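Quick start: what a row looks like.
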Amino acid sequence: MSASIPQKGLGPGMPGMPSQQQQSQAHMTPGLGPGQPGMPPQSALREISPVYLCRIGQETVQDIVTRTMEIFQITRATQLPNGVTQSQAAYQDRFGKLQEHLRQLTLLFRKLRLLYERCVEMTTDLQESPAELVPYAGEETAPMRVEPCSPAVIQERQEVLEKVRQKNHEMKVLMDQMRNLLWDVNAMLTMRK
């Protein structure tokens, strides 16, 4: 697992962005990145469980979403060129931030891809083929034999259905009465004014 990024850095630029020195170390250092708490060195990656890798992947996805939201916030705050001159420094600053976020997103996606490939390697014996994961794909299900119900069960079902019909009818009548009552009250209140 090569190119990855630290989650928090105190470098120049935006808070939470890694400094240039940390970024260059991230490219040279194998593993998941320098200075990340709880991250084991490359030699210990062989003993890492797939669950731990999935958790790192989940954090990476959260970082990707956060960076993407920041990109959208920057672009939303950017004023379109409508004849008003904007300072070149502000433009360059926003452009630099966008470029940095896009570069970080690329690194995060690479890291996520490496984590995914590593998880797949570690769990090849646990995985099923994709055809087996899709229910009922390519094969018919065996018809289930349904036993006929006894007459007592059929009779009880009919009685329950009749009771439900009666209750539904009673509720409809009550709702109609309430609606008419509300109409009368509203009409009387309107005439009073």
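That is the whole record. The chain has a mean pLDDT of 74. The radius of gyration is 32 Å.
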